[in-house]
Design a protein that fits this description.
The chain is of the alpha+beta class and 166 residues long. The chain has helices spanning 7-16, 26-37, 42-52, 56-65, 85-89, 92-103, 145-165, and strands at 77-82, 116-121, 133-135, 138-140.
């Protein structure tokens, strides 16, 4: 991911790849911007709107329709909690509750220190591992409240070590 300082240049680089773009290219543009920056900022929406000659409200309306788009930076540890049927039956609600309590954020939010972000997904596609969470793409199977607390403690310690070394 890129730093804040080059956010605008990433958006411009994406738009340069779509020189004569029309509305039908909005989704790929949004996907490319999110891939490059990590989320879709209000400024990015305005820049894309000018490029496509479409209002920011229309772009935001399209982007909010799809749950793949984020509008805030994600944390260093991006946690996705599966709420699919198998995970639900085996206790993913208690896993989600443990995460919201431990992190002090709700799904869709990032902790103030930027260390954790939390997202709920309909299904991760790892039903045999239920209840499962994904952290930066790595699956953690058979989660429970106790396992969540231990994992968050380990990740916090990793995050603090990383900050001290930089």
């Amino acid at each position: 991911m890129h730093s804040k300082t080059d956010h605008s240049s990433v958006v411009q680089d994406v738009l340069n790849r779509y020189p004569n773009a029309r509305r039908d290219q909005l989704i790929p543009i949004l996907q490319d911007v999110q891939e490059g920056v990590g989320y879709i900022s209000e400024k990015a929406i305005q820049t894309i709107g000018r490029h496509l000659k479409v209002s920011s409200n229309k772009i935001y309306g399209v982007a909010t329709f799809y749950n793949q788009f984020r509008f805030h930076p994600i944390g260093r540890f991006h946690i996705m909690v599966c709420r699919g049927t198998a995970c639900h039956v085996l206790g993913s609600l208690s896993v989600l509750n443990a995460l919201t309590q431990s992190l002090g954020v709700q799904p869709g939010q990032t902790t103030r220190d930027g260390l954790f972000s939390l997202e709920v997904v309909a299904c991760i596609g790892a039903c045999g591992l239920a209840p499962v969470i994904s952290i930066n793409g790595e699956f953690h199977a058979g989660m429970s409240q106790e396992k969540v607390e231990k994992l968050i403690k380990e990740l916090r310690s990793l995050g603090e070590t990383h900050v001290q070394n930089n």
